[in-house]
Amino acid sequence: MLKAILILPVNVLLTIPAIILFFCGFEFVSFKLSIMLFLMTVAFALGLFLMVWTMRMFAAVGKGSLAPWNPINKLIISGPYAYVRNPMLLGVFLFLLGEVILFQSKALLIYWLIFVVINAIYFPLSEEKGLLKRYGKEYEEYKNNVPRFIPRLTPYRK
Fold first, then answer.
1. Cα separation of 80 and 51, whole Å?
2. Is 116 helix (H, G, I), strand (E, B) or coil?
3. How far are the Cα atoms of 76, 133, 148 from residue 82, in angstroms, in the given order?
4. HSE-CB for 30 with a 13 A CA cutoff
């Protein structure tokens, strides 16, 4: 699990944004903009919470990790997955948005937008097809009842 965390989220959330900020510059959000600080804090907190919760579910329930070389062996539809089909990615989106707000960087905003669009295209075209092959009707039913990125208000119950 540690290898997957170091390679995937650390690069997406820290390494790439640091390189972008190094080459493109940034300006910290003003502490006078309390609404921006509130939004940043909420984005960081929710993003981190979802990522940690999801990784714990991967290990405890799915007996795998977020990495393609160590996939889960059971379809997870509980915990955060009862509300949204991809809570890990939603957590990453939120955490990156927190960085965009903190650093007030247009280049980082463009990175966030590109990252969101690529994943919004990739998941239905590739990953979801693979999940449908692995889990069949169980995944199909889950997919029809749980949104991809915007959480349900009530948990999905099979």
1. 10
2. helix
3. 9, 21, 11
4. 2
Domain boundaries, the chain: 2-145
Identify whether the C-beta of residue 17 lies closer than 8 Å to the C-beta of residue 100. no
Residues in the chain: 158
CA-CA-CA-CA torsion for 144, 42, 13, 68, nearest 10 degrees?
-30
Q: Amino acid identity of 77? A: I
Mean pLDDT per 10-residue interval, the chain, length 158 residues: 69 95 91 88 97 91 77 89 96 98 96 97 92 94 96 94
Tokens at 6, concatenated: 């170091």
**Buried-state track 121-147, b at ≥16 Cβ within 10 A, e below 16:** eebeeeebeebeeebeeebeebbeebe
Determine the pLDDT at residue 66.
Answer: 75
With CA atoms as reference, report the closest residue to 97 among 2, 23, 12.
12
Residue 23 CA to residue 152 CA, distance in Å, equals 39
Token readout for 50 is: 């979802």
66 alpha-carbon distance from chain centroid = 11
CA distance 65 to 105: 32
Identify residue 29 by its one-letter amino acid code. V
